[in-house]
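User: Could you check the structure of this?
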Amino acid sequence: MYAAMGFNFGILFHAAFAAFGLSAVLRTSALAYQGIKYAGAAYLIYMGIQMWRSHSQSMSEGSVQELKPMKIFRQTVLCNVLNPKVALFFLAFLPQFVDTSRGNVGMQMFILGIIFMLVSFPVFAATALFSGAIGNRLKGNPTIEGWLKRVAGSVLVSLGLVLAMPESR
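Assistant: Sure, the predicted C-alpha coordinates are below.
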Protein backbone atom coordinates (compact mmCIF):
# COMPACT_ATOMS: atom_id res chain seq x y z
CA MET A 1 0.00 0.00 0.00
CA TYR A 2 2.97 2.32 0.56
CA ALA A 3 3.95 1.77 -3.08
CA ALA A 4 0.40 2.66 -4.16
CA MET A 5 0.53 5.83 -2.06
CA GLY A 6 3.97 6.67 -3.47
CA PHE A 7 2.84 6.33 -7.07
CA ASN A 8 -0.20 8.44 -6.25
CA PHE A 9 1.93 11.10 -4.58
CA GLY A 10 4.06 11.15 -7.73
CA ILE A 11 0.90 11.94 -9.71
CA LEU A 12 0.42 14.94 -7.43
CA PHE A 13 3.87 16.21 -8.50
CA HIS A 14 2.96 15.80 -12.15
CA ALA A 15 -0.34 17.61 -11.57
CA ALA A 16 1.57 20.52 -10.04
CA PHE A 17 4.14 20.45 -12.86
CA ALA A 18 1.34 20.57 -15.42
CA ALA A 19 -0.46 23.36 -13.55
CA PHE A 20 2.66 25.52 -13.45
CA GLY A 21 3.59 24.74 -17.03
CA LEU A 22 6.74 22.81 -16.13
CA SER A 23 5.55 19.76 -18.05
CA ALA A 24 5.37 21.92 -21.17
CA VAL A 25 9.11 22.51 -20.77
CA LEU A 26 9.64 18.76 -21.09
CA ARG A 27 7.63 18.78 -24.28
CA THR A 28 9.50 21.68 -25.84
CA SER A 29 13.00 21.26 -24.41
CA ALA A 30 14.86 18.23 -25.68
CA LEU A 31 17.57 18.79 -23.06
CA ALA A 32 15.11 18.85 -20.14
CA TYR A 33 13.27 15.82 -21.47
CA GLN A 34 16.49 13.88 -21.98
CA GLY A 35 17.73 14.85 -18.50
CA ILE A 36 14.60 13.50 -16.81
CA LYS A 37 14.55 10.49 -19.09
CA TYR A 38 18.15 9.50 -18.33
CA ALA A 39 17.72 10.14 -14.60
CA GLY A 40 14.68 7.83 -14.65
CA ALA A 41 16.57 5.21 -16.66
CA ALA A 42 19.53 5.34 -14.27
CA TYR A 43 17.20 4.95 -11.30
CA LEU A 44 15.47 1.90 -12.83
CA ILE A 45 18.83 0.29 -13.59
CA TYR A 46 20.00 1.03 -10.05
CA MET A 47 16.83 -0.54 -8.59
CA GLY A 48 17.29 -3.62 -10.81
CA ILE A 49 20.88 -4.08 -9.69
CA GLN A 50 19.75 -3.75 -6.06
CA MET A 51 17.22 -6.54 -6.70
CA TRP A 52 19.94 -8.75 -8.19
CA ARG A 53 22.22 -8.09 -5.24
CA SER A 54 19.49 -8.88 -2.73
CA HIS A 55 18.42 -12.20 -4.33
CA SER A 56 20.31 -14.19 -1.70
CA GLN A 57 18.56 -12.40 1.16
CA SER A 58 15.20 -14.00 1.82
CA MET A 59 12.19 -11.87 2.70
CA SER A 60 11.19 -14.59 5.14
CA GLU A 61 14.36 -13.75 7.11
CA GLY A 62 12.75 -10.37 7.87
CA SER A 63 14.90 -8.19 5.68
CA VAL A 64 14.33 -4.84 7.33
CA GLN A 65 15.93 -2.89 4.47
CA GLU A 66 13.42 -4.13 1.91
CA LEU A 67 10.34 -3.78 4.03
CA LYS A 68 10.71 -0.26 5.44
CA PRO A 69 7.45 1.40 4.41
CA MET A 70 8.92 4.89 3.98
CA LYS A 71 11.69 3.57 1.74
CA ILE A 72 9.07 1.89 -0.47
CA PHE A 73 7.08 5.14 -0.50
CA ARG A 74 10.12 7.28 -1.41
CA GLN A 75 11.23 4.88 -4.15
CA THR A 76 7.83 4.85 -5.82
CA VAL A 77 7.44 8.64 -5.61
CA LEU A 78 10.88 9.09 -7.18
CA CYS A 79 10.16 6.48 -9.85
CA ASN A 80 6.93 8.25 -10.83
CA VAL A 81 8.38 11.78 -10.72
CA LEU A 82 11.35 10.73 -12.89
CA ASN A 83 9.10 9.23 -15.54
CA PRO A 84 8.85 11.83 -18.32
CA LYS A 85 6.13 9.82 -20.03
CA VAL A 86 3.76 10.58 -17.12
CA ALA A 87 4.36 14.30 -17.66
CA LEU A 88 3.76 13.89 -21.38
CA PHE A 89 0.59 11.93 -20.63
CA PHE A 90 -0.64 14.86 -18.54
CA LEU A 91 0.10 17.21 -21.41
CA ALA A 92 -1.62 15.02 -23.98
CA PHE A 93 -4.65 13.95 -21.95
CA LEU A 94 -5.66 16.70 -19.52
CA PRO A 95 -5.76 19.77 -21.80
CA GLN A 96 -8.73 18.42 -23.72
CA PHE A 97 -10.80 18.86 -20.54
CA VAL A 98 -9.66 22.43 -19.83
CA ASP A 99 -12.04 25.23 -20.72
CA THR A 100 -10.14 28.51 -21.07
CA SER A 101 -13.38 30.46 -20.71
CA ARG A 102 -13.81 29.13 -17.17
CA GLY A 103 -10.81 30.85 -15.67
CA ASN A 104 -7.42 29.81 -14.36
CA VAL A 105 -6.08 27.11 -16.69
CA GLY A 106 -3.35 26.10 -14.23
CA MET A 107 -5.88 25.50 -11.46
CA GLN A 108 -8.06 23.49 -13.84
CA MET A 109 -5.04 21.33 -14.77
CA PHE A 110 -4.21 20.81 -11.09
CA ILE A 111 -7.80 19.82 -10.23
CA LEU A 112 -7.87 17.40 -13.17
CA GLY A 113 -4.59 15.95 -11.90
CA ILE A 114 -6.13 15.47 -8.44
CA ILE A 115 -9.13 13.74 -10.02
CA PHE A 116 -6.76 11.49 -11.98
CA MET A 117 -4.90 10.73 -8.75
CA LEU A 118 -8.13 9.82 -6.94
CA VAL A 119 -9.25 7.57 -9.79
CA SER A 120 -5.82 5.92 -10.01
CA PHE A 121 -5.46 5.08 -6.34
CA PRO A 122 -7.95 2.17 -6.29
CA VAL A 123 -6.08 0.59 -9.22
CA PHE A 124 -2.72 1.05 -7.51
CA ALA A 125 -4.14 -0.24 -4.21
CA ALA A 126 -5.71 -3.32 -5.79
CA THR A 127 -2.42 -4.08 -7.52
CA ALA A 128 -0.57 -3.69 -4.22
CA LEU A 129 -2.99 -5.95 -2.35
CA PHE A 130 -2.83 -8.60 -5.08
CA SER A 131 0.97 -8.44 -5.20
CA GLY A 132 1.16 -8.59 -1.41
CA ALA A 133 -1.02 -11.68 -1.30
CA ILE A 134 1.12 -13.44 -3.88
CA GLY A 135 4.29 -12.27 -2.13
CA ASN A 136 3.13 -13.68 1.18
CA ARG A 137 2.58 -17.08 -0.42
CA LEU A 138 6.03 -17.06 -1.98
CA LYS A 139 7.93 -15.97 1.14
CA GLY A 140 8.15 -19.54 2.33
CA ASN A 141 9.94 -20.75 -0.80
CA PRO A 142 13.46 -19.27 -0.99
CA THR A 143 14.15 -20.79 -4.43
CA ILE A 144 11.12 -19.18 -6.08
CA GLU A 145 11.75 -15.96 -4.19
CA GLY A 146 15.34 -15.81 -5.44
CA TRP A 147 14.26 -16.35 -9.03
CA LEU A 148 11.52 -13.73 -8.73
CA LYS A 149 14.06 -11.18 -7.48
CA ARG A 150 16.36 -12.00 -10.40
CA VAL A 151 13.49 -11.69 -12.87
CA ALA A 152 12.24 -8.44 -11.27
CA GLY A 153 15.78 -7.05 -11.31
CA SER A 154 16.16 -8.03 -14.96
CA VAL A 155 12.86 -6.37 -15.85
CA LEU A 156 13.88 -3.14 -14.09
CA VAL A 157 17.30 -3.07 -15.76
CA SER A 158 15.69 -3.84 -19.14
CA LEU A 159 13.14 -1.05 -18.69
CA GLY A 160 15.94 1.33 -17.75
CA LEU A 161 17.94 0.37 -20.84
CA VAL A 162 14.91 0.73 -23.10
CA LEU A 163 14.13 4.11 -21.57
CA ALA A 164 17.72 5.23 -22.17
CA MET A 165 17.61 4.30 -25.86
CA PRO A 166 17.14 7.06 -28.41
CA GLU A 167 13.60 7.61 -29.61
CA SER A 168 11.78 9.95 -31.91
CA ARG A 169 9.54 12.40 -30.07
